[in-house]
Amino acid sequence: MENQDIIKYEQALKRVKRIKSFYTHALVYLVINAMIVILNIQNLKEGESYFKIENFVTLFFWGIGLLAHGLSVFLPNFILGKDWEEKKIREFMEEDKKRVWE
Length: 102
Description:
about 100 residues, mainly alpha, 4 helices
């Protein structure tokens, strides 16, 4: 393989690992929160409603974290733009070259 192919392969591998990490996070989120919901329902007192704020705190805040994780995996270019990382690396390398010549 050429050097360029190796780089592209490593980038693709890194992206696959990030996606796999998100799916694992989502699965753990679903399993743990399902268990919390089941335990909360089993511990309800006679006539008590499940729909109380304390029953949704974990679900809500962890959901925000999961959403942020998903956005970072599937929309990395949304905020910083396409190839932002590479452009920044080139920019820093150019700055270093200028410093060497000065």
